[in-house]
């Protein structure tokens, strides 16, 4: 026995010698082995300014408490840390779901959970007849409301924190709380970081909007740190070095210019031991906030236009305007560059008995309507371009009678025959001139009371030419989800006549603005854009950095019309607003800026938000009128173009029957008023700079003389 014990001890000592002496250094290195894990830390997004340098969207710093989960962290470890943190901060529990509560209850009540499963079911589980996943689901299903009600408010707060802990990814900071973090909470958590593994205090940021609801729908939204990457685009963003809990643009400008606004992330190398504990952190690359956007929008004009819409729409509703009238749109753009100067839309809503004007600027590009006579400029030019009519050609305006259809006539001539020119037709908005132009395009001859025989290709041909103006096609604006409108179903060739007066296809307000700009600038369809420049972040707060990229004007196409043909229509548009019988003369007479444009009304079946309500109640959809206006100024050298669209304005006259013209006049007045005001301010600034320069020069000369 002594010999056996001696032998065993000898073997043990020999083995220890090998481990400690021969392999000691290798084992020591394994013990001390660390891992380098590189993670990205988010940075503030780029800011958004208007064309004059006024801040629209900014970043506001805010205190934040974060948690970085180490690799292999157990549920128990995270729960214990959550319990400690819950004693130091207040955490809202509104995001906690029923499933969260059930998972937490199972974690807290291990013995009670076992009793939810019968002995027979345990036997099946042991024999692999029930999987672990199925067993857990059975436990979840058998947790009662009484069980969940046993969770105290403190436990729910712990759960809310624990939920944030588990929603992040290993070695990636996850925001636990960044809203309403008090100075006391921030300080007490900072003091107790040693006992809160993974918890840290830092500075986060949030988007701040300088103009409340102005342009809010166009600016778009970003996801929260809780939402992270949109599910449908996770792979796309992960391939571009995003983390799953990164905040990204979800809509419109924030989405369209995500790559510009996101910035360069801070790259941090976390050094961990073999257990996943963070030993040290090292900044590998400093981050830089995103580049800034300078919009083409003039916020002074934008706000003024919105105020005009609110005033006129509100007044129309108060004075007994049609109950279906609920929105007005205005697009203002530079016809020479395509820059959007204002994109305004308001929707009248009643909530809790209070009337509200909601921002609906997006409606300028996401909703479409029948526009009526405003498109007659395109009809006349299409007649020129197809060779159907020539500039200055006269046609007889008379009621047209076709077999099986109601009489078609112009509003100002219900019974006689009047020979009119193309410009007169535009000035007085003749329907018959447009009908006959369409008939000429389709090689049709008019015979009273006979069936209309017209080439079926007349309507497709007209649509093709209308697209040169931007009608019925995408304008190309630098925003997602632009709509192109709806094409009416061509059940009979004669519908080309309705198309010629804007009573068939639908267009967006933005398409109208591009269309009238194309006529205003001499036939060039400019690509509209809402971003003017991309600039680097400025070194000083409140300043604008150097230019990274300037968005230059882009010509999409040119009309197949000659300069003389375009001038013919331009003169007709001028006559609309200042001619002796112009349809808009009453509203634009005396304007010093020489406007030109075209009015339009379109009758059609109501197709707005209350449509389903009518159908549900078995009611017939009412016929309503859309009233619209396009224009530009000055007539001889245009610098601003606009479109006003007022859907479902009235049924048969009423106080809102002229809201399009009133809004249009006030918008142009305000544009030129602001232009003059800014010119005076610039002149004043130049004078001050000259005075300062002169003073500095004198002091410099005196200094030189003294030397």
UniProtKB/TrEMBL annotation:
Its main location: membrane. Its EC number is 3.4.16.4. It is found in: Cell membrane; Membrane. It is a single-pass membrane protein. SUPFAM superfamilies: beta-lactamase/transpeptidase-like, Penicillin binding protein dimerisation domain. It catalyses: Preferential cleavage: (Ac)2-L-Lys-D-Ala-|-D-Ala. Also transpeptidation of peptidyl-alanyl moieties that are N-acyl substituents of D-alanine. InterPro entries: Beta-lactam/transpept, Beta-lactam/transpept-like, PBP_dimer, PBP_dimer_sf, PCN-bd_Tpept. It is an enzyme of class 3 (hydrolase). Residues 329-658 form the Penicillin-binding protein transpeptidase domain. It comes from Bacillus lumedeiriae. Signal peptide: none annotated. Belongs to the transpeptidase family. This is serine-type D-Ala-D-Ala carboxypeptidase. Residues 688-698 have a biased composition (Basic and acidic residues). Pfam families: PBP_dimer, Transpeptidase. Pathway: Cell wall biogenesis; peptidoglycan biosynthesis. Keywords: Cell membrane, Cell shape, Cell wall biogenesis/degradation, Membrane, Peptidoglycan synthesis, Transmembrane, Transmembrane helix. Residues 42-280 form the Penicillin-binding protein dimerisation domain. Residues 688-707 are annotated as: Disordered.
